[in-house]
Specification:
7-stranded antiparallel sheet; globular; 17 helices; 3-stranded mixed sheet; Membrane-bound Lytic Murein Transglycosylase D, Chain A; Protein Transport Mog1p, Chain A
Length: 490
């Protein structure tokens, strides 16, 4: 609903859970395989309200698998799926669409994100599930997205931004010489989140009305917008970058949402459903999906693809959708991703096929690294020097793209060191992996927000994270016996 999202990346380091931030796709109110079945609200095929343009379903069906692939696949968590199915059914009835079918998909992504496509396709991420604190907050998110679809906003957006651009990820920007992961992700956000301010406000109003009619607390929309603002500040501080300067918090929007909510009753009106909601999401993964691999110190380990590599010190690795990206202390950047290359195409031929701008063909060489076939070359544009390597493991091809303003000896050495470290995973790699889960703790007599926050002090900025994900302030009272969220490395 704000038009931009805040990425919450969580990964293991030698000192615990590190947190970094990036700008993600369209966030409203407020990643794996694409062949996993989505959970639907009835029926075998998605349908949309009567009178919807016939092209809407075509657009949605075409873009749906791309969205799933770009966001790490479908996330399966049975209790959450059951909760969502019931919630959507209630909201559709309240929206006077009781016979309408929407495809609602949980994306395996840590982004705090939700969005809709034409044709009745609605998406929520693990990240947004982790930030919400009760049924009414999530209902506000989904009702807002239902409003976008029923008000035909999703189609209007797709007419302005051709649907092929909706899922256009970072690669084009990188290969054109823009290597800052946040800048490229921001451009993706702008294409995916091209709802106008008027459309967002209209969906706010309609969404609050739908949620209130369904019996949920209408004030949850303003409450969750507030939580989003706090989370954005936490994310910015985690990365040392003020994302709020270009993606400001929305006090005016919060005030408007609160005013609309008051027309349906005072605070406390409707059902919040806090305990039921928290129990439904307990145990969901927190942070980056292990389907996309994990970062342990300077190593990237992907058990599914059976590969690992190590980046030099000074390169801060993070997982960004279907890629591993890093920016070094000296300004150099790295992107590691996969590519679709026919089995009968040689790696050297692929390097020369034109996908990398400014490639110098005479620099292309081939060699075997730790039993893995590779090809490498250099490229140059007006502003950037590139060292590019591709590797074939089984039937898959992977790419290392290093970029820097200067083609220094240190830059060349870092590229060589990283590519030379690529190898198949070993038992010792897999034993270092840990899962990060969202769990619940019950407040005891005498507890407050500060005492509960000590449950997470073993994590980097864990105390602050506890307050943010529970939407509490230091010293706030808590309810004895009530559940509260913690993040735990297991």
């Amino acid at each position: 609903m704000t038009g931009t999202g805040i990425t919450r990346r969580a990964f293991l380091t030698g000192t615990g859970l590190a947190l970094v931030a990036g700008v993600a796709g369209c966030t409203t109110l407020m990643g794996g395989s694409s062949d996993i079945a989505t959970r639907r609200t009835g029926g075998q095929a998605p349908a949309v309200p009567a009178g919807t343009h016939p092209e809407d379903t075509v657009i949605g069906l075409r873009e749906h698998p791309r969205i799933i692939s770009a966001y790490g696949g479908v996330y399966e968590h049975r209790r959450t799926e059951v909760m969502l199915a019931r919630m959507v059914s209630n909201l559709l009835a309240a929206a006077d669409q009781p016979n309408t079918q929407f495809t609602i998909t949980i994306l395996d992504s840590s982004e705090v994100n939700a969005f809709a496509l034409p044709g009745g396709f609605i998406y929520v991420t693990r990240g947004i599930l982790a930030l919400a604190n009760d049924m009414s907050e999530l209902a506000a998110v989904i009702a807002h997205e239902i409003a976008h679809v029923t008000l035909r906003h999703a189609r209007a957006r797709s007419n302005r931004v051709r649907t092929s651009e909706i899922v256009d990820r970072v690669i084009t920007g990188v290969l054109g010489g823009v290597i800052d992961a946040n800048q490229t992700a921001e451009r993706t956000a702008q294409s995916l989140a091209a709802f106008s301010q008027a459309q967002e406000l209209e969906a706010d109003r309609e969404g609050i009305k739908i949620a209130a009619r369904a019996g949920y607390d209408p004030h949850a929309a303003a409450r969750f917008l507030t939580a989003m603002g706090r989370f954005a500040q936490f994310a910015a501080a985690s990365d040392g970058v003020d994302f709020l300067s270009s993606h400001p918090s929305t006090p005016d929007r919060i005030q408007r949402a609160a005013e609309v909510a008051r027309s349906y009753g005072p605070p406390g009106t409707g059902v919040a459903g806090r305990t039921d909601y928290l129990e439904a999401i307990e145990g969901i993964d927190f942070g980056d999906s292990t389907k996309q691999g994990s970062i342990v110190g300077q190593r990237y380990i992907n058990p599914a693809q059976r590969l690992t590599f190590t980046a030099p010190r000074g390169y801060a690795l993070q997982i960004s959708n279907a890629a591993v990206v890093a920016v070094a202390d000296n300004g150099a950047a790295l992107r590691f991703d996969g590519a679709s290359v026919p089995a009968n195409t040689g790696l050297a031929d692929y390097l020369r096929s034109g996908w990398i701008a400014g490639l110098m063909p005479e620099t292309v060489t081939t060699r075997t690294v730790n039993g893995i076939e590779t090809a490498s070359g250099r490229a140059r544009t007006d502003q950037w020097h590139f060292h590019v390597s591709v590797a074939r493991i089984d039937d898959n091809v992977y790419r290392f793209i290093f970029a820097n303003k200067d083609d220094s000896a240190a830059f060349r050495s870092a590229a060589e060191e990283t590519v030379s470290s690529l190898r198949r995973t070993q038992p010792s790699d897999l034993s270092s992996l840990r899962s990060v889960k969202l769990r619940l703790v019950r407040a005891a007599s005498g507890d407050n927000a500060d005492t509960l926050a000590t449950r997470m002090t073993t994590l980097n900025r864990g105390r602050e994270l506890f307050l943010v994900v529970n939407n509490l302030l230091p010293g706030d009272p808590v309810e004895t016996g009530a559940p509260y969220k913690i993040v735990r490395v297991e």
